[in-house]
Design goal:
It contains 4 helices and 9 strands. It is of the alpha/beta class.
């Protein structure tokens, strides 16, 4: 998920959409089934995105200047249809979700056949079997995105430095 309003300079290169790291709100890995290797893969992807360099500049306005907006954490998660575990949302899932650092933490996920999981403010995972997991996931994602608000003002000159390389 990325911001199209405050980070509009998006272009295509080699069949891919290129966006500035500052405009990324969330990154999700989508797989057929959840298992330990898929969780580990999604954690690695989350960490790689969270390590991207992001900028934030002060924001000029008619009455002066607002301070630069602090960078918000990029949400990360895993979306699957099914689980390779039995039960689908049991202890093996909890064990797989345990992260070594906040960089590779999965904040939110959905196993469509079984339920949702999410990391709370205390870095504890809440696993909830749901009758309508996709809807529950969507509503939780929207609530978390509302808490993030908008992306920071990007330092486009920082990107321009790479043009000379």
């Amino acid at each position: 998920m990325f911001d199209r309003q405050y980070s509009p300079f998006i272009f295509h290169f080699g069949g891919q959409i290129i966006i500035p790291a500052e405009s990324v709100y969330a990154v999700f890995e989508a797989k057929q089934a959840i298992n330990a290797s898929q969780v580990a893969y999604a954690q690695q992807k989350a960490a790689s995105v969270r390590r991207l360099h992001r900028t934030s500049l002060p924001i000029p306005h008619a009455g002066g200047t607002y301070s630069a907006k602090p960078l918000t954490p990029i949400l990360a998660g895993l979306l699957t249809f099914e689980s390779d575990w039995n039960p689908g949302l049991g202890q093996p899932l909890r064990d797989a979700l345990s992260a070594e650092s906040t960089d590779n933490r999965l904040d939110l996920g959905c196993v469509a056949a079984h339920g949702v999981f999410g990391c709370d403010a205390g870095d504890r995972y809440i696993i909830t079997p749901q009758g309508k997991p996709a809807t529950a996931f969507l509503l939780e994602l929207i609530a978390r995105l509302q808490g993030i608000a908008t992306v920071p003002m990007i330092d486009v000159r920082a990107y321009a430095k790479w043009l000379a390389v």
